[in-house]
C-alpha cells in the first residue's frame, strides 16, 4: 500500500525533474493526470519522471506537460506538489487558458473547438443512445407501437438535442468567446424559429425573402447544424464587446442587448447562416464522397493516422465535423473509424504486457490497454506504445485494417464522443455485428503486428 511519504517523495521528485518551482507557471490535475504549464519544456527530465514508482507516463499536449498517475493517486501527489513547491493551485480551466498561449494557431483552433464541444457531448450521447434504441426497436418490428405514449416520448427525447443543437452550441461557444450566454441562446433560438422551414426538409425546396433589395434570404432554419452558429456567436462576441464600449453606461443594460441581438440576428439569417451552411454542406459532401468513392482506402488512411493526429491535439476539432455529418446525413460515419484506432491502441498495449520483462511496464500496460478498450487512450499511447515506438506502429496497422473494414461494411453511429466498447451503445442496429467484428479485427491485428515487430527494452 502506498503511504503519505511515497506521495510526498514522488511530488518532490517530479518538481525536481520538471526544473524546479521556478519553471512551473501553473499546476492543476484532472481525474488521472497532473497538468503543468512550464516556462521551458526543455528543462524536463522525462526519463527520470517516468522511472518514478507511481508515474505511468509523461507527455506534452495542448501546451501542457501531463503526468499520468491514476485515479486516487493524482490528487494526493498534487496536494504534496503544490505544498512542497509553494505553487499556486489552479483549476484545469485556468491551466488550459495559460497553456493555450503556447500553442500555434492550428492547435489553438483545435483547443477552442474542444472547449466548445466537449461540454455538450453528454447531451449528444444521450440523444444518440435513445435514437439507437428506437432504431433497434424498429428493427425488431416494434414500430407497431409508434402511436403509444412511450414511443412518442422516446422520439421527442432522442431528437431534442439535435433540433435545439444551435442553442446548446451557442451557450457553450459564448462561454469560450466571452459573450453573454443568454444573448447567445436567444440568437441560437432565432436560427431555429418555428416560422422558418425545418432545415431537414430543404431538399424539397424553400422560400426566400428579399432583404434590403439585395439579399435573397432563405427562410430556412438551422436545426442540427454546427458551423453557422459557431461563426455567428464568434461575431456576436465581437459585436457585444464593441457595442458596450460605445453605449453610455446608464443605457448599457437596455441598448447593448438590443443592438447585439438585432445586428447578430440579421447577420445570422441573411449573411452568415447561408454562407456557413453552404460550406458545411460542401464539407459533408466531400467526406461522404471520399468514404463512398475511395471506401477501404479512405478507412485505412483515416484509421491508421488517427492516433498520430491525437498526439497533435487536432482531433478535438473533429466533433464539429461529425455533428455536421449527423445533421446532413442522420448518421456519423467517421466515429466508427476513430473507434477502431482507439481500440487498436489497446491491442498494442496488451501485446506489450505479454512481451515486456519490465515489472513496472507490466503494471502500466495492462490497465492502459483496458482503458483504451473503453475509449480512453492517453495512457496507452503516451505511457506505453510511444515509448517503444513499434507498438504505436502496430496499433496504426490495426487501426487501418479495422478502419477499412467498418467503412467497407458501412458501419454508422448516431452520436459523437463515445468509442471502443461503450461505442456499441450508439451504433445503428444494422451496423452492430460489423462494428463488433471491426473491434475484433483492430484487437487481433494490432496485437499480432506488435508481437511481430517486437519491442526493444533497455538492459
Please list the strands of the largest sheet in the order they lie side by side. Answer: 1-2-4-3
The biggest beta sheet reads: 4 strands, antiparallel
Strand-residue fraction? 5-15%
Shape descriptor reads globular
Instruction: Give the low-confidence spans.
Output: none
Output the number of helix runs.
18
Helix and strand content put the structural class at alpha+beta
- Helix percent band: 55-70%
What topology emerges from the helices and strands here?
Elements: H1 4-17, E1 24-29, E2 33-38, H2 46-50, E3 57-61, E4 64-68, H3 74-85, H4 92-100, H5 105-117, H6 121-139, H7 149-163, H8 165-177, H9 181-190, E5 208-211, E6 215-218, H10 227-246, H11 252-293, H12 295-312, H13 318-329, H14 335-355, H15 359-373, H16 378-388, H17 390-408, H18 432-453
Antiparallel strand pairs: 1-2, 2-4, 3-4, 5-6
Amino acid at each position: 500500500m502506498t503511504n503519505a511519504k511515497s506521495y510526498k517523495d514522488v511530488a518532490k521528485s517530479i518538481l525536481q525533474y520538471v526544473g524546479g518551482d521556478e519553471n512551473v507557471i501553473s499546476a492543476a490535475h484532472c481525474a488521472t493526470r497532473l497538468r503543468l504549464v512550464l516556462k521551458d519544456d526543455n528543462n524536463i527530465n522525462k526519463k527520470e519522471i517516468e522511472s518514478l514508482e507511481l508515474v505511468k507516463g509523461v507527455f506534452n499536449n495542448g501546451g501542457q506537460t501531463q503526468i499520468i498517475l491514476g485515479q486516487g493517486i493524482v490528487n494526493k501527489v498534487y496536494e504534496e506538489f503544490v505544498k512542497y513547491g509553494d505553487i499556486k493551485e489552479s483549476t484545469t480551466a485556468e491551466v488550459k487558458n495559460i497553456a493555450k498561449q503556447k500553442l500555434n494557431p492550428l492547435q489553438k483552433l483545435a483547443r477552442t473547438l474542444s472547449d466548445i464541444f466537449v461540454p455538450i457531448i453528454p447531451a449528444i450521447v444521450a440523444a444518440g443512445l435513445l435514437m439507437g434504441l428506437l432504431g433497434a426497436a424498429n428493427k425488431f418490428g416494434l414500430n407497431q407501437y409508434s402511436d403509444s405514449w412511450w414511443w412518442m416520448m422516446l422520439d421527442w427525447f432522442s431528437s431534442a438535442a439535435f433540433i435545439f443543437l444551435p442553442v446548446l452550441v451557442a451557450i457553450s461557444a459564448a462561454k469560450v468567446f466571452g459573450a453573454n450566454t443568454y444573448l447567445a441562446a436567444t440568437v441560437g433560438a432565432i436560427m431555429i424559429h418555428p416560422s422558418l422551414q425545418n432545415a431537414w426538409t430543404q431538399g424539397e425546396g424553400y422560400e426566400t425573402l428579399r432583404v434590403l433589395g439585395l439579399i435573397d434570404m432563405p427562410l430556412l432554419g438551422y436545426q442540427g447544424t454546427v458551423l453557422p452558429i459557431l461563426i455567428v456567436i464568434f461575431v456576436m462576441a465581437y459585436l457585444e464587446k464593441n457595442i458596450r464600449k460605445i453605449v453610455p453606461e446608464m443605457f448599457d443594460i437596455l441598448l447593448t442587448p438590443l443592438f447585439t441581438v438585432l445586428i447578430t440576428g440579421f447577420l445570422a439569417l441573411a449573411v452568415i447562416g447561408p454562407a456557413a451552411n453552404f460550406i458545411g454542406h460542401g464539407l459533408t459532401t466531400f467526406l461522404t464522397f471520399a468514404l463512398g468513392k475511395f471506401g477501404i482506402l479512405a478507412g485505412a488512411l483515416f484509421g491508421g493516422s488517427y492516433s498520430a493526429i491525437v498526439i497533435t491535439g487536432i482531433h478535438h476539432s473533429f466533433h464539429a465535423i461529425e455533428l455536421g455529418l449527423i445533421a446532413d446525413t442522420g448518421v456519423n460515419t467517421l466515429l466508427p473509424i476513430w473507434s477502431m484506432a482507439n481500440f487498436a491502441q489497446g491491442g498494442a498495449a496488451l501485446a506489450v504486457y505479454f512481451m515486456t520483462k519490465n515489472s513496472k511496464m507490466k503494471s502500466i500496460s495492462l490497465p492502459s490497454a483496458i482503458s483504451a478498450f473503453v475509449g480512453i487512450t492517453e495512457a496507452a499511447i503516451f505511457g506505453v506504445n510511444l515509448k517503444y515506438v513499434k507498438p504505436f506502429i502496430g496499433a496504426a496497422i490495426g487501426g487501418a485494417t479495422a478502419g477499412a473494414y467498418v467503412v467497407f461494411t458501412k458501419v454508422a453511429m448516431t452520436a459523437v464522443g463515445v468509442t471502443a466498447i461503450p461505442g456499441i451503445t450508439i451504433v445503428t442496429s444494422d451496423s452492430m455485428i460489423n462494428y463488433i467484428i471491426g473491434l475484433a479485427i483492430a484487437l487481433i491485428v494490432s496485437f499480432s503486428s506488435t508481437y511481430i515487430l517486437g519491442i526493444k527494452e533497455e538492459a
